[in-house]
From TrEMBL:
Residues 7-278 form the Amidohydrolase-related domain. SUPFAM superfamilies: Metallo-dependent hydrolases. It comes from Mesorhizobium robiniae. The lineage of its organism: Bacteria, Pseudomonadati, Pseudomonadota, Alphaproteobacteria, Hyphomicrobiales. This is TIM-barrel fold metal-dependent hydrolase. One of its GO terms (molecular function) is hydrolase activity. Keywords: Hydrolase, Lyase. Pfam families: Amidohydro_2. Transmembrane segments: none annotated.
Length: 293
């Protein structure tokens, strides 16, 4: 099977000044030895040599994991490498100027979607502070990528990462494209059944291959529930690299070779690898067009 991804839909960007001491303190429970040393624009561009496109966004997880980035950094990377990067704004509903920052990111900086981590910011998806965010994104046909699943950070309430919380929002805002990053791990069964029921909910597989038994079960279950066509490829760079993510994805069946266990189909493996969010997440609008005046 061929091993070149089309789009990495989950790429984090930050500069050295965005890294707080807490980040290095927490790396003991992360794949610290495998992490890329930097996540600036030039590092990202070099890393993404083997993908056609990459969706990039910063993190505002200062009090959770010690990364406090800004949308200007994302926008600068897109301006420098417009043929490679599509930028998303970050949403932190705890801030009084949350909507002002979102509008600035979209309308002034030309970013094409939004990212939010409920578990990292300690804000439930049903929190009223997020309602204007959902309304704005739905109105302007902009996707929302959400970190759904657990994390290594101590200051991040686990319950807020559960994929089951996505469904009420998806039903209330049926024209809002919602993307569950990391397939809701370890609650991937919840993520899969929600994505099956709700046509505006999608999944992506970033930072999952290095738990091979869990990843294998995810894809088998996704095929059984007939939602494998709603899964997109991502890495979560710098927490996982492109080449290792591709290799791990292609080798998803290695644990069950020679056994009667079900195999993930070659069609599913290749479809995820070649998945193109630019054809699905914007409902027909081209995200590479210039920002609205």
């Amino acid at each position: 099977m061929t091993g070149r991804a089309y789009c990495d839909c989950h790429v984090n960007i930050w500069n050295e000044e965005h890294v707080l001491p807490l980040y290095n303190q927490l790396l003991g429970r992360v794949r610290a030895g495998e992490l890329a040393p930097k996540a600036d624009a030039e590092t990202l561009y070099d890393e993404m040599a083997n993908v056609e496109k990459a969706i990039v966004f910063t993190l505002r997880y200062g009090d959770a994991i010690g990364i406090e980035g800004d949308d200007a950094t994302t926008a600068a990377a897109v301006r420098k490498y417009p043929d490679k990067f599509v930028g998303f704004a970050y949403v932190d509903p705890r801030r009084a100027d949350c909507m002002e920052m979102l509008r600035h990111g979209i309308e002034d900086l030309g970013l094409k979607g939004a990212k939010f981590g409920p578990i990292y910011n300690g804000v439930h998806l049903a929190d009223p502070r997020l309602e204007p965010v959902y309304e704005y994104l739905q109105k302007y046909n902009l996707p929302l990528t959400m970190h759904m699943g657990t994390t290594f950070a101590r200051n991040a309430p686990v319950e807020l990462g559960r994929a089951i919380h996505v469904e009420p929002i998806a039903m209330k805002y049926p024209d809002l494209t919602m993307v569950m990053a990391h397939m809701g791990h370890p609650w991937f069964d919840e993520a899969i059944v929600v994505a099956r029921k709700q046509p505006n909910v999608w999944l992506e597989n970033s930072a999952l291959f290095y738990r091979p038994w869990q990843y294998y079960n995810m894809l088998v279950l996704a095929e059984e529930y007939r939602v494998a066509d709603k899964i997109f490829f991502g890495t979560d760079f710098p927490f996982a690299r492109v080449d290792e993510s591709v290799a791990g994805h292609l080798a998803v069946n290695r644990l069950v070779e020679g056994t009667p266990m079900p195999k993930v189909s070659g069609e599913t493996i290749q479809r995820i690898l070649r998945s193109n969010p630019l054809e699905h997440w914007w409902k027909g609008d081209n995200p590479l067009q210039p920002a609205r005046g």
